[in-house]
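Chain A, query sequence.
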Amino acid sequence: MDRSQFAEFLRCRREALQPEDVGLPRRPRRRARGLRREEVAELSGMSTDYYARLERGAGPQPSEQMIAAIARGLRLSLPERDHLFLLAGHDTPRRSLRADHIGPGLMRILDRLQDTPAQIMGSLGETLVQTRPAMALLGDETHHTGPARSAVYRWFTDPSSRLIHPASDHPVHGRIYTAQLRRAAARQGPHSPAAALVRRLLDESEEFAVIWNEHQVGLTHTDAKRFVHPEVGELTLHCQTLLDPDQEHALLVFTATPGTESHDKLKILEAVGTRQSTESPGALQGVVAGPTEESRTTTVR
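Chain A, predicted structure.
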């Protein structure tokens, strides 16, 4: 690990970012050049002391997981992220880890949606990052590991994952999830994570196997989706999707038609998310899952 260059690179990238670049308000009489260390630490889901030690070139070698979190917090591009890995003494990320890295452009859009339920998803339905209102609406799912990171896997193996939708909608959701996984497996090939997930689900879920053998393709969710929330009841929301084809990521934004009961209920949930976000400055941001070294409990869906 090249500690001096690693620390200098972190410091340079931190000072190049302004609060408005990551969706943070610019406070009066702010004197800091770029972001403060505590702000980057919050964005990365770790303690300020841990991040400060890294900038000083002290402390143990950070794990791949921690570096990935810092790269996302600093809104690094993929080349910058790979460079940070090398400076830390690691190989450049494996394909699966690279797929978890969200491009800075998509993150900048999410930064401006902090008062709206929004989240960024991977190609297998992994929730990579989301806003606080999205957590209030959908719950925390970024803490899952292994195959359970995939919403498709959870749908067919964990009955509680279906409670967010009305029971009458479950059959269509199962078929759409299966069709989307079939498309991902065809795109990625027989030795891909998508294909491995298919094989695992065929072994573990009879329901999935039945739907898979129907060979349905081209099924997609409609614009309007129905949700069931334990506090406010049923909502009908519109889901707009922005795709990043380079990374196969999708930004999902949930809205409700003004004047409807669902709109009023969504405002209640957004207020809940806002109250939660005031607990710490970094909670205003979409928070990522992953860090385990001196990390804070800031993971959301």
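The domain at 3-101 is CATH 1.10.260.40 (434 Repressor (Amino-terminal Domain)). The radius of gyration is 20 Å.
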